Amino acid sequence: MGARKKITAEERKEAQKTLYFAKLTGVPTSPRKMRLVADMIRGMEVNKALSVLKFSSKEASGRLEKLLKSAIANWEIKTEQKADNANLYISTIFVDSATMMKRLRTAPQGRGYRIRKRSNHVTLYVDSKITNDNQI
User: Fold this and answer.
1) Domains and CATH numbers, the chain
2) What is the pLDDT of residues 70-81, one digit of tens each?
3) What is the rounded CA–CA span in Å between residue 69 and residue 88?
């Protein structure tokens, strides 16, 4: 590895230590359906977002609830504090499309219809409002 590449890689690792996030990869749900749920909780406080996800009827909300709990646990481990009194909120959440399984369904008159089974990746960042005020 070159010297400049090594320096930038170390800088990226140091910046990553101050971010608190969780990733969910290869979810067998279309990205469009997952984005509907992600848009509901974007920017919310963590406790409110957990209650919204718990009582949502969407299938993707169960997966996002588990992901949010994982991000909270990551924050607790890195900062060595409890999340109850930290005033946490979801700073960023985004959904990217992942690989697509392509299948064929038989159709009339010898044709075949293409079926695309989509999947996605979700990345969720959690941050504390208290630390943002101290940094400014």
Assistant:
1) 21-135 (3.90.470.10)
2) 999 999 999 888
3) 12
